[in-house]
Design goal:
By secondary structure, this protein is an alpha/beta fold. It contains 8 helices and 15 strands.
Amino acid sequence: MNNINLNNFNIGNYEPMTLMGGVNVLESDSVVMNVAEKFAESTKDLNINWIFKGSYDKANRSSISSFRGPGIDEGLRMLEKVKSEFNVPVITDIHEPSQAEQVAEVSDVIQIPAFLCRQTDLLVAAAKTNKIINVKKGQFLAPWDMKGVVDKLTSTGLPKEKIMLCERGTFFGYNQLVVDYRGLIQMKEFGTKICMDATHCVQQPGGKGDVSGGNRDYAPYMAYASTIFKPDAIFMETHEDPDNAPSDGPNMIRLDNMEKVIKTIKAYNDVSV
């Protein structure tokens, strides 16, 4: 299986570890740059491929009054600033087909949110940019159901070498998620790369009524455990003050704990066979 080529590194489980890390939502320049600086410092001496993540719009928030983000124009400006100052590729998500081309001008990887992973027009528009596409597996889907997603993407001519499928938990009753790590192996059989989202899988969707809950204490362990299954990338979000973060605070790892978590993931990844 060929590796994904991105800028000056390759994504694959026999390449250096790849980490998709950053913020849940692009909140402000100061927060974004502070988080980016922490990831840059934490990965520079560890032989880790790092991709900065940030969303310009959280279009699927539980409440109409919840903070969604700065919008596409301001958000892409923030991402461009991170790219320029830290010389790092970036990933962000799209929610409508009309956003694909504009986002592709800045983002090195386009992400499809889990709730939208079966939207044909969205997938086709993303694939037509010829960018690397990371699709979050819907919480409502079995791993093998993602084959249809892959087929939609490749119908445009996009090679499988540019597709990643991301495990982020499966509904286990109401307001709970569970991770079946076998899904990482099952999805890899489609010939794509796989990613483990360690922070969203500990989310409790809608668990606090008008916002989602979660338990960030479990997030590092979900990442550690996934290394046995050799994902091609690990996805994590952080915040300097998660309890007061505008989105997904309960499941984000504290920024001051991130360096320790990254080093531990790297240690487990290096000894996994």
